[in-house]
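Re: the request from the purification team.
They wanted to know what the chain is likely to look like in 3D before they choose a buffer screen. I agreed to run a prediction and write the result into the notebook, where they can find it.
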Amino acid sequence: MIGWTRRLLSGRGLCALLLVLAFAPAAGAATRIKDITNVQGVRDNQLIGYGLVIGLQGTGDTLRNSPFTEQAMQSMLDRLGISTRGVPLRSRNVAAVAVTANLPSFAGVGGRIDVNVASLGDATSLKGGTLLITPLNSADGQTYAVAQGQLAVTGYVAAGEAESVTQGVPTAARIPNGALVEKPAPGELAELPQFVLELNNPDFATAARVADAINARFGNNVTDNGKIGGPVRPTALARDQRSIVVLRPPRISAARFLAMVGDLAVQTDAPARVVIDQRSGTVVIGRNVKISTVAVTQGNLTVRVTETPQVSQPAPFSYGETVVVPNTEVQVEQDGGYLSVVRGPDLDTLVQGLNRMGMRPTDIISVLQAIKTAGALQAELVIQ
């Protein structure tokens, strides 16, 4: 990936245009399979829990505005043998939080994972707080980890009577290694007789090249009956533009086999695509994008209306009244309007043609949309 930035200076100010040119790999350059694929089923599992953060310096939830915090405090104290039923709580050192974490695949019991903490009530800061023991559940409702520990808050807030300063997000925090794994995620790698590799960027050509590289390295596999001399089939088969089915050879562990497959190098391919982000003025053009020969003109029409009201003051000792007299000035400016020929047999020629016209980011976006409508843009146009 090569990044290229060009700044255009107009009479009205500086406009920035970012063109990211997604060049295909050069001749001889290749990418490892592990960098462009992932194993289907080998993924993280999301966990969530509800907990309490204590030890805050008066920056916690207002219990009157956050009744769930008071209920959680009462339930916690009841479990500890302290009865608070019927007693109003007015503590400002406690905050209700949502705790989230990702349970990595094949995480063992006793391992530690990072957790994220975010306030649920009207607490102003979690700085200095400690998370009490919080069970973390998955979508199946089972507890896979338990979190507890000191919060690490990067943001802060400082307030006075007339002004306040806030840096970052003081109501969100992180606890490195703050959760203990109590139950491993279901599934074992050794049980899989075959694997499915999924491409991060689906493409038929790339899927076929990945399958060819695996077959060239491992050859063919015996069919399920395992008989010598029986029919054989390739180790890898591209099922569609995203997935490649890979059979695990006999007498080799799953982990070693995936490590060997991941180190194989292939040349990736990508479809011709232009991505436009109208909010930031970013245009991303792939290397395979081509434009048929077209003539383009882009004119900028600017209408400026300026209101300069004037005050009419009556003469002294007169019976007149002071009134405001409107004064409107209208200016019309039109720039550009030149007809230019743009042809794009390759990416460099296309970019040079667009830059030669001296257009601003919004103009280039409009031109690309018009060229696509005219049928001259031989690529997919994605507008975000």
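For the purification team: Residues 1-28, 224-230 have pLDDT under 50 and may be disordered.
Please add any questions underneath this entry.
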